[in-house]
Amino acid sequence: MTAEGFQLPFGLGVESFARTFILPPTILPLDAARLQEAAQILEAVAANRALLAVLSEEDRARFIQAAGEVYCPDVGQRRRLTKATSRQRQAAQQGAAQKVLGQTGIRALRCKPIVTTPNYFLSAPSLESGR
Length: 131
Known about the structure:
The chain has a domain at about 10-90. The protein has six helices and no strands. The relative contact order is 0.06. By secondary structure, it is mainly α. The longest helix is centred in the C-terminal third of the chain and has 27 residues, at about 75-100.
């Protein structure tokens, strides 16, 4: 999925999403280009772990720890994010289904103006004209 096609849960912007899910403030100015660059680096390292040999032991451990935190962050944070995206996906599916159902059958008929039956008794019958 491309960065342009991804929507954050609850309609949050990147900065409010980052604040909600407790990211350090130094990481906040993210853009799609930096994230794509990071993804390319991670893919290159995943393809060839020997690239990590140029890093010091401390930096290597920090890099691996950060990659692991992206995949499997804090349990509570991961659950909140998973539930939020699940709710958003279900709401989108329900909205699409309701839109289709709203155009069919009785629902479409309910939107049309109600047809009233003619009033057969326009005025009270007079006793004199009837006898």
